[in-house]
Design goal:
Layout lengths: L1 E4 L2 E4 L10 H5 L2 E9 L2 E2 L2 H15 L10 H11 L5 E8 L19 E8 L8 H4 L1 E7 L14 H12 L4 E6 L2 E5 L3 E6 L2 E4 L10 H12 L3 E4 L4 H5 L3 E6 L3 E8 L2 E2 L7 H17 L2
Parallel strand pairs: 7-8, 7-14, 11-12
Antiparallel strand pairs: 1-2, 1-6, 3-4, 3-5, 5-6, 8-9, 10-11, 10-13, 13-14, 14-15
Helix pairs in contact: 6-8
The protein binds pyridoxal-5'-phosphate.
Length: 285
């Protein structure tokens, strides 16, 4: 596979980053994951906007190649022959000559820019969409700026392992009794014709897929309530689902061992997934 590192397209085993890179030592970096369907990028503009915001919030210098990111995404998709898959992009504060808690001078330390593709044939036809996911609830002990998409993913990764050990697929995180989000996705419940999801704040990532799905939901005449909900409310809901760039809209059929409805994916969730995939494919670039 060909990857991109700081201006160069290289075979993956020739790509190098310094051991002093701030992301390696301090998780001082941000990332984006953009999905590819039919060789085209889904919602690239949304991901680029959020990336710019993440960089601003952390005071990481915008790399000189920022304006070329679309072209770099497209080139990697092309050279790696990606029909369905993902493009991973990471920008870090860079690699000063030594380890120091103080941010390096942006005049002398350039951000590190890395991109690679992941080939996922049939990404939109995942069997999980037909079976649905089981989630467990865990305490949300992450830091207070989850709206910034940093590479600090240890707790989400631990959460996914806790779910796996419990025989589930993912974990929904709970803070002060209310669901924040999934380990790598936004969380929703549906009761009647109403979709409920936590409102945007520093507590959750502002999902690009979330924004699109809420827009389409309103067009599909479904009500949207952006508010807190508890795990108990979720267990009594008619349907539940998650959204992310890599899973699109994915049904949740079980929470902490309690089946929702008859334990199979709900019709409204299936409809939302269909609309999301149709509309996103149409707008892909
Ligand atoms: N929430 C968290 C914690 C995530 O890591 C992600 C995606 O990686 C999302 C939500 C979903 O965001 P998006 O739809 O932009 O992929």
């Amino acid at each position: 596979r060909t990857v991109y590192v700081n201006g160069d397209y290289l075979p993956e085993d020739e790509a190098k980053v310094s051991i002093f890179d701030r992301a390696f030592l301090m998780a001082d970096g941000v990332y984006e994951v953009t999905s590819v369907l039919g060789g085209k990028l889904i919602d690239f503009a949304g991901h680029a906007r959020r990336l710019e915001r993440s960089l601003n919030e952390l005071d990481i210098k915008k790399p000189a190649v920022f304006g070329d990111l679309l072209e770099i995404h497209r080139e990697l998709v092309k050279v790696n022959g990606i029909e369905d898959g993902l493009v991973y992009l990471q920008i870090t504060r860079g690699a000063p000559g030594d380890r120091d808690f103080v941010f390096p001078d942006p005049e002398t330390t350039e951000p590190t820019v890395v991109l690679f593709t992941q080939n996922k044939p049939g990404l939109a036809d995942s069997p999980a969409a037909k079976v649905g996911m089981k989630v467990i609830s865990i305490e949300d002990v992450r830091w207070g700026r989850r709206d910034i998409k940093t590479v600090q993913l240890l707790y989400p990764s631990m959460g996914k392992m806790m779910a796996k050990k419990a025989g589930a697929d993912d974990a929904w995180m709970v803070q002060d009794g209310h669901v924040t989000e999934g380990t790598s996705n936004n969380a929703y419940i549906i009761t009647g014709n109403t979709i409920v999801t936590r409102a945007l704040s520093n507590d959750i990532l502002h999902g690009i897929t979330r924004a699109a799905v809420l827009r389409f939901a309103k067009e599909a005449q479904m009500q949207v309530e952006e508010r807190n909900f508890t795990i108990d409310e979720a267990k009594k809901a008619d349907e539940a689902f998650i959204t992310s760039a890599s899973s699109f809209v994915m049904p949740v059929v079980e929470i902490d061992g309690v089946a929702l409805g008859d334990g199979t994916p709900g019709a409204r969730t299936a409809r939302l997934r269909e609309i999301y995939l149709d509309e996103s494919r149409k707008a892909a670039i």
